[in-house]
Automatic annotation (TrEMBL):
One Pfam entry name: ScdA_N
GO cellular component terms, A-Z: cytoplasm
Entry superkingdom: Bacteria
NCBIfam families: FeS_repair_RIC (TIGR03652)
This protein's UniProt keywords: Cytoplasm, Iron, Metal-binding
Compartments, as annotated in UniProt: Cytoplasm
Coiled coil regions in record: none
GO molecular function, one term: metal ion binding
Taxonomic lineage from the root: Bacteria, Bacillati, Bacillota, Bacilli, Bacillales
Protein name in the entry: Iron-sulfur cluster repair di-iron protein
Keyword Iron: yes
Length: 233
């Protein structure tokens, strides 16, 4: 069985074992936008010390248990770009299309009701709606302009089309970095979505759905930046 090393990048580890993202999230290690450096190099730059050997050991133990439970890793190198686009549409774009509007209503509700006593909810309200606006426009551009080009390139590969894809990829990566920063800010002002004492049910639902949004978005960005956008070279 494969054993991960500190010389592996977080992006490559999550590519093989998606649940490793839980360990990286806990230690505030970026595996999507900035996850293409060796894990040890990332740890060396962190202000808060993280025991790399302990971290990689925990990931390997979890991965072994995951494999022994009958799970199988996806070899993304054997998945065509158009198939990967379909996967991203089904698991991430569809999720956002369905989730952003109702979640907006919850974020607005707790800001309106609890904002006077919890001032951070004003910032959360502004950040979430900035995220919503950015992601809605971003998905339109991907679905209309970029994704169809991957299927077209599979059918008729040529240098002009490849260059066009590369240019659009770079624009999408810039967008990912921007929304990733928004997600990080929402996490920080809510203390990793830690509920205040006496939080009502709407508060609980909002924070739970925001935490799910964060997880889905990081996986979404990882699949595009580190797999789809690198599938054509």
């Amino acid at each position: 069985m494969r054993e991960f090393q500190l010389t592996d990048t977080p992006a490559d580890i999550v590519k093989i074992y998606p649940k490793a993202s839980d360990f990286f999230k806990k230690e505030k290690i970026d595996f999507c936008c900035g996850g293409d450096q060796p894990l040890q190099s990332i740890l060396d730059k962190k202000k808060r010390r993280v025991d790399g050997q302990q971290l990689i050991g925990l990931i390997n133990e979890s991965f072994q248990a995951w494999i022994e439970a009958g799970n199988k890793e996806i070899n993304w190198d054997n998945v065509s770009p158009s198939e990967l686009v379909d996967y991203i549409m089904q698991h991430h774009h569809h999720y956002l299309h369905e989730e952003l509007t109702p979640l907006s209503q919850f974020v607005t509700k707790i800001y309106r009701v609890h904002g006077p006593n919890h001032p951070h909810l004003e910032d959360l309200y502004k950040l979430f709606h900035q995220f919503k606006m950015e992601m809605e426009g971003h998905m339109i551009e991907e679905e209309r302009d970029l994704f169809p080009l991957f299927e077209k390139y599979e059918e008729e590969p040529n240098e002009a089309l490849k260059e066009h894809i590369f240019q659009l990829n770079n624009t999408m990566i810039d967008d990912h970095e921007f929304v990733g920063e928004i997600i990080q800010q929402m996490n920080e002002i809510t203390n990793d979505y830690t509920l205040p004492e006496g939080a009502c049910n709407s508060y609980r639902i909002t924070y739970a759905r925001l935490a799910e949004l964060e997880q889905n978005t990081y996986q979404h960005i990882h699949l595009e930046n580190n797999i789809l956008f690198k599938s054509i070279s």
